[in-house]
Design brief:
This protein has helices at about 20-35, 50-60, 65-80, 95-100, 110-120, 130-135, 140-145, 155-170, 175-190, 220-235, 240-245, and strands at about 10-15, 45-50, 85, 125-130, 150, 195-200, 220. The chain is an alpha/beta fold and about 240 residues long. It has a four-stranded parallel β-sheet, with helices on both faces. It has a three-stranded parallel β-sheet with strand order 2-1-3, sandwiched between helices.
Length: about 240
């Protein structure tokens, strides 16, 4: 029997963008290797969708079509042997219910994992940065509200700037100092509006902003938190079936 026989197969629904998917792959693999040592690595199954299709669904508000598209892809992960699914994007968790209905294996929701970390930090109000669909939609706010966590979002001009930087730069692997400074201005404004911590609610924002940029303000890196849970589930350290489905 090999060490991999004890590992669950992590299904990663990715491609939104490739930058995010690569980060998930590397971090999950690294986390499992840290636990196993040597050349130990994660059991990973990745289904990378066409980001061009997903971007169009977002831009045209075709959320039903987006849900159908991603639900089919998640079903392919299940058919391929995945034991559970993580989706390497925040924005498309807006259609998580369609995905959950389409599969019989657990779906590990990024907002739930983030809420756990916010509660553990004893933070009650967070600022949310992400795409406009994330910041302006109800799916993130409502799910956090169900856990007693209040959400503050940037004003319209700042939301547009944050969104533009994500789609025009970060999803293409472009990291600019000027964009970092713009994000930090937005963070400062949201903190001034009452946020006690900041949710980096786009899986590419970790490329641009990190905790050391604002040491006094807790930052909740959704990619790192999601990956940490995926690693724990992949190693069999937590009961994914009971916790996330």
């Amino acid at each position: 029997m090999s060490a991999s026989d004890d590992l669950r197969i992590v299904g990663v629904l990715g491609g939104m963008s490739s930058e995010s998917t690569v980060s998930y792959y590397r971090q999950i693999d690294r986390g499992v290797n840290d636990a196993l040592g040597g050349h130990g690595a994660a059991n990973l199954l990745i289904r990378s969708v066409n980001f061009g299709d997903v971007e169009r669904f977002i831009r045209t508000d075709e959320w039903t079509a987006a849900g159908d598209y991603l639900a089919e892809a998640a079903g392919e992960l299940e058919a391929g042997g995945a034991d559970f699914v993580v989706m390497a994007t925040n924005t498309m968790h807006r259609v998580a219910p369609a995905i959950e209905r389409a599969i019989s294996i657990p779906f590990v929701h990024i907002v739930d994992v983030t809420a756990d970390a916010i509660e553990a930090a004893d933070v009650e109000t967070v600022g949310l940065l992400g795409t406009q669909a994330t910041m302006e939609g109800s799916f993130y706010r409502d799910r956090l509200a169900n856990r007693g966590i209040e959400v503050v979002v940037p004003d319209r001009a700042d939301r547009e700037a944050v969104d533009t930087i994500i789609f025009d730069e970060l999803t293409n692997g472009i990291v600019r100092d000027a964009s970092r400074e713009r994000y930090l201005e937005v963070i400062d404004d949201v903190v001034a509006a009452g946020a006690e911590g900041i949710v980096l609610g786009c899986t590419e924002i970790e490329l641009l902003v990190e905790q050391d940029d604002r040491p006094a303000v807790p930052m909740f890196d959704t990619t790192a938190l999601h990956v940490e849970r995926a690693v724990a589930h992949g190693l069999g350290e937590t009961d994914v079936a009971l916790e996330d489905h």
